[in-house]
Amino acid sequence: MAGLRICSVLVTGASRGIGLGFVQQFLGMSNPPKWVFACCQDIKGQEVQELQNLASKHPNLVIIPLEVTDPASIKAAAARVEEQLGGSGLNLLINNAGIAKLNLLDNETLEDMTLTYTTNTVGPLLVSQAFLPLLKKAAQGSPGSALSCSKAAIVNISSSGGSITSPEGWDLMQVVSYRCSKAALNMLTKCQSLGYREHGILCIALHPGWVQTEMGNSVGVTVGISWSGSI
């Protein structure tokens, strides 16, 4: 992140795992953002304690409640961020929040498919739509035509599990609904890149690789039944 020069960044699913890691990295930069918005479902529970500890040390960290499957929650979060920015735009949106169900192909269900798709694909769509005006404002206020995270960007945290040509780890875990949702997220990202480039907004999908979080052990083997908030 050494080359980043951003004034504001928002991370969803920021209470733990990869999302929390992003927040810690941004706060630890030699030239940190003026505002780091950490969004999570519950801002008062035990799971958010680490964020609260960070906020007590970093006045530029703002914790905001955001449920990515709830349009009203998304709208309220966008209004809160806009108010905090005070006329400035949002440089970087990281759609990190997600959920997975460890179902096999033969026992995948309508309910789990619907919930996973809604969270992992529709959620990033709705969040990006809500923050688009602030991203456009940031792009308009940045000199030059080159697309970059320092200007205005949407970063969707995806997975190689969503790859159609290289479906990694099938023998280890099938997670069908998760794979389908990430494949759809990849297409959403492509659509965003085509639709938003005229506004100067970079749109990319990133695969973080195996990361040791609450979801897995030291070799990246998932051991839980389901997870959310840090995919």
UniProtKB/TrEMBL annotation:
Any Pfam family matching the protein: adh_short
CDD domains linked to this entry: carb_red_sniffer_like_SDR_c (cd05325)
GO cellular component: cytoplasm
Signal peptide: none
GO MF entry, a single one: oxidoreductase activity
Family: Belongs to the short-chain dehydrogenases/reductases (SDR) family.
Annotated protein name in UniProt: DHB2 dehydrogenase
